[in-house]
Amino acid sequence: MVRREKGEMVLYVFGRHGAIALEPRVGVLVTPGLDRNASAVGTEGQHRSPHQKMENKQEEKVQDPDRVEDDTKTDMGRKTWADLSGEMKMFLWNPEERTCMGRTAKSWGLILLFYFIFYTCLAGMFAFCMYVMLLTLSPYTPTYRDRVSPPGVMIRPYLNGFTIAFNVSQPSTWQPYVDSMHHFLAAYDDKVQEEKNIECISGQYFIQGGNESEEKKACQFKRSLLQNCSGIEDPTFGYSKGPPCLLLKMNRIIGYRPGAGVPVSVDCKVQKGNDSHLRSVDFYPGNGTFDLMYYPYYGKITHVNYTSPLVAMHFTDVKRNYLVPIQCSLNGKGIINDVNSDRFLGRIIFTLNIGK
Q1: Maximum CA extent, the chain
Q2: I want to staple 236 with a disulfide (CB 3.0 to 4.6 A). Which of 19, 58, 80, 240 is the partner?
Q3: CA 105, 109, 115 angle in degrees (round to 5)?
Q4: Stretch 16-37: mean pLDDT, rounded?
Q5: Whole-angstrom distance between the N-terminal and C-terminal Cα of the chain?
Q6: Mean pLDDT score of the chain, rounded to an integer?
């Protein structure tokens, strides 16, 4: 369609998007509405305000979070110690919001009350469990004794390990051993045993019935039974003359009956080396046995005055000025004395070195 407007010829072309005016003087197509929008956008870009530019920068920051984080770190690095101190004080106590470390007094009270109740309940549950467990245990005898090993043994005197070395001519070398023997045997004095314990029938177990909480009686083991190693006739136990005395005792096991009706005996020999280095050993009492009347043991709560039976070993003929390794063992039914990994199970190994 061709129309004349203000003396000029204008060609209109109608399409799906409206009419398009063709201006012959400039040779361009003009779309109503589209040209005006384009010009408006151009004009808006040229006359954009500084406030709009700041908004665009903020939008760029939102689109680039890494850049924002870097800017924040830079701002934090610019803070002085006074600023940090002020922020800390504000954190500890904020007078405006009346908060301490970010919590009000009510908030602190509620959280402390919660933890108090929580830990009180935990403590109560633990105490209740312990109480129930203790109800199943006896203070007098162990509940389970199926894995109790045969008894171990120990010697006296025991000062600096299992090497007993001294010189007969130097009392300062053997006096500590003598003092240790006297101290250990104080509980075996004849008068003490007669006052506290009773005489029993030798050769049989002293079995006591009744309630397990009843106090049990103990048999007398007098110091005088050790004869030459009692320290009564020879207060030095042989150390001043050369042949020393040693005491051997079995460890206590509640309810244990050693030997199955036959007394357990003791023997000593050279562990490694020449057997002639140990020619003679005397045993007391008797032939070096533990009498059955001292068993069974009922525990320290009920068997208050119980004193363990002893076997004294008098080494009357030992090679002088030589380290002699000696092994003393228990012998009897049910006794184990050949376990290499346990040097105290049914035996004891020590060294004698007697100088002139």
Answers
A1: 159
A2: 240
A3: 145
A4: 47
A5: 148
A6: 82
